Amino acid sequence: MPAIASVLALFLALVLAIAAAHKLAERARLAAATAGLLRLDPAVAAPVTMAAAAIELAASLALLFPASRIAGALLAVLVWAGYGAALLAARRRGDGGLDCGCDFGRRQTGIGRFAIARALALALAALALIPLSPAGGGSVDVQSVFAALAFVALLFAAGEIAHLPATSRSAAR
Questions:
Q1: In the chain, where are the structural domains located?
Q2: Which of 32, 52, 92, 164: CA 20 to 30 A from 109?
Q3: What is the DSSP secondary-structure string of the chain?
Q4: What is the pLDDT of residues 103-126, one digit of tens each?
Q5: What is the value of pTM for the model shown?
């Protein structure tokens, strides 16, 4: 079980660190996305977005160390469950066409089911990490790092596949 916990913790830490870096690199776009998702004034949305980035970075760092891994996992659960809830609420109220900031580039499709499912699946993965984390420690080996990187690549590939245009059966004939 420790190998699974190590890979999962590294995977989640990488996703959180990438998300935080994304918010820092695209401050204006993601502040606008936060304003739309949460229906905030743009002046308020910018600090909220930076606070989210800080929390993501803190959770990412906490996941790297066995002593703080459970706290990092709990922070990750809160971040992703909150994000998933905000995405779902925006879609239900008719704001599904918003740029949610879910991807590195602005998507034409807006808030899709994949974005909501991804956030909630990541929250569940972080929740699953809690009982898997060893109490006294655990080590990170090279195989765990490569496995975590592979899962990050698969997550991004799944996001790209989810945004491919749907083809109709009649066009395939």
A1: 2-172
A2: 52
A3: -HHHHHHHHHHHHHHHHHHHHHHHHTHHHHHHHHHHHHT--HHHHHHHHHHHHHHHHHHHHHHHSGGGHHHHHHHHHHHHHHHHHHHHHHHHTT-TTS--S-SSS--SS-S-HHHHHHHHHHHHHHHHHHHHS-SS-----HHHHHHHHHHHHHHHHHHHHHTSPP--HHHH-
A4: 776 666 678 888 899 999 999 999
A5: 0.86
